[in-house]
Amino acid sequence: MAADQLAERDTRVSTQRATRGTVTTARGRIAALTSALLLASCGGGSGGATGSPAPTGAQAHDATLLAGRNVFSADCASCHGARGQGGVGPTFHDGRLQRDFPSAEDQVSFVSRGKGLMPGFGGMVTRRQLEAVVAYERQVLTHAR
Ligand code: HEC
């Protein structure tokens, strides 16, 4: 084999090595990025930092409202917004909630049955949780901005 052919082969081999090196680095970076994203999306799961407003003042330690906030974050915020500002589902800030449901009991029945795009939660959460999330919507979210 002539010397210049050998030299050409050497170049090709080192190019391949260099390319492989780059791929490995990129894969490492993607793995690091993925675990960072996972960490970010799990943040606050059990700590209660939900992005939905906590009850304040005299209500700050109300066990029903605190439980309602957890149900709301887990099952309702995706459609009604973390602060009840609305999204796929209507806002709770414009007085419509109080007009549609003068009594909390009517609202509990509604959430239990669901309507249109809104799933019924009767079979998914306990009666206590239904009452808690309704209390949270009426007493905390209607005042949140
Ligand atoms: C998949 C989206 C979605 C989820 C999840 C969801 N909702 Fe809804 N919600 C809606 C939609 C859409 C409406 C309007 C239904 C209609 O009137 O046709 C609605 C309406 C309501 C209303 C009536 C509002 C009014 O003023 O008339 C209440 C109360 C309510 N939702 C509470 C809840 C609660 C509590 C949860 C969680 C347990 C929840 N929603 C989860 C989409 C959703």
Labels describing this entry:
145 residues, mainly alpha, Cytochrome Bc1 Complex, Chain D, domain 2, 2 domains, elongated, binds heme C
Account of the protein in words:
The protein has 145 residues and is mainly α. The protein folds into two domains: 1-41; 57-141, Cytochrome Bc1 Complex, Chain D, domain 2, CATH 1.10.760. It contains five helices and no strands. α2 crosses α5 (127-139) and α4 (104-113) crosses α5. The longest helix has 40 residues, at 3-42. The chain is elongated and about 95 Å long. The model is unreliable at 30-48 (pLDDT under 50). Bound molecules: heme C. The site of heme C has 22 residues, from α2, α3, α4 and α5.
Helix content: 55-70%
Structural class: mainly alpha
Helix count equals: 5
CATH C-level class of the largest domain is Mainly Alpha
Number of strands: 0
